[in-house]
Design goal:
about 50% strand, 7-stranded antiparallel β-sheet, binds manganese (II) ion
Length: about 300
């Protein structure tokens, strides 16, 4: 997907490293617009830019799309990141400059690696009508992998394991003993916890930091901290498990990874170590540079003015 950071999402100095040990640090999300849809954005936050290499979390819907009102994210560029798309309901057609044309449905993973440059669209009009609900996440590529060739993977079946009161589907990386087949470019995990009422204990890696986001259903609690939809719960480093309490049927997105050591600049759809590389990437998009290829979409490619600091 595609979007600008709002003032509440901009960085502030002094990211709080001491918070790594608290029970559950809760951050407010913000509302953004992606295509014709409102989304709840829970990463990046002002004082929490990344969780592992995860740098962007958008929760879209539930809403509905029809033949004249849909999710129509026109062709746009990316560099320096991977996009992870995961649906709870509905369908989206992904088209990219690698020639991919892939419908994604619930329980499936679309993983697009931008590397040095890719462009894509995400469409529903003419493809699907009905409810739509899902998440899209970005993973910053590590410095030594950020200029790799673009790639796309679709995974129809992802592994899951039973919890005491539900199950966990491993979207990418490993959780406990269970590993997703998706290719990894960094040490991360993403999982969908489907919880029923009760307490579940989730296995963690002490070398990872973690975040949780409620993406469907009622609040959850970690210790005495209650997490509602639209907020980010942050679990720091050094845990080998955590206990989560649910009062009903709830879906919780769990993301984690080894803390990102690299400076990241995010602007529009680009992730890079410096503003200079973003200025170049954006000027290449405006010029129709071959690094982004072309997308066979009926939608007109998105063009926006350059960053405010590029003049
Ligand atoms: Mn996108």
């Amino acid at each position: 997907m595609s979007g600008f950071l709002q003032p509440a999402d901009q960085p502030v100095e002094g990211d709080d490293a001491d918070a790594h040990r608290c029970e559950l640090e809760i951050h407010d999300g913000s509302i953004a617009t992606v295509g014709a849809f409102q989304v709840r954005r829970t990463l990046p936050r002002r004082v929490k830019r990344t969780i592992g290499q995860w740098c962007f979390v958008d929760h879209m819907g539930p809403g509905s799309v029809s033949d004249d009102h849909g999710l129509d994210v026109a062709p746009h560029p990316h560099i320096g990141l991977q996009t992870v798309t995961w649906l709870l309901d509905g369908a989206i057609l992904h088209r990219d400059s690698l020639g991919t044309e892939q419908v994604i449905r619930p329980g499936q993973l679309n993983l697009m690696t931008a590397g040095n440059g890719v462009s894509h669209s995400e469409e529903t009009v003419g493809v699907y009508s009905g409810p739509l609900h899902g998440v899209q996440l970005w993973v910053a590529l590590p410095t030594d992998r950020r200029a790799i060739d673009p790639a796309f993977e679709h995974h129809r079946d992802l592994p899951a394991f039973e919890l005491d009161h539900g199950d966990a589907t491993v979207i990418i990386g490993s959780l406990g003993e269970v590993a997703s087949p998706a290719s990894l470019e960094s040490e991360i995990v993403g999982a969908d916890l489907r919880l029923r009422s009760g307490r579940d204990v989730i296995p963690l890696d002490p070398a990872f930091e973690y975040g949780i986001v409620v993406i469907d259903g009622p609040d959850v609690a970690v210790g005495d901290r209650v997490l509602t939809q639209g907020k980010l719960g942050y679990l720091g480093l050094g845990r080998d498990e955590f206990a989560i309490d649910s009062t009903g049927d709830t879906r919780v997105l769990l993301i984690g990874g080894v803390p990102c050591p690299d400076p990241l600049v995010m602007w529009w759809n680009y992730v890079a170590p410096s503003r200079a590389e973003i200025i170049e990437a954006h000027s290449d998009w405006a010029d129709g540079h071959e690094r982004y290829g072309t997308v066979a979409s009926p939608l007109e490619r998105l063009v926006v003015p350059g960053p405010p600091w590029s003049a």
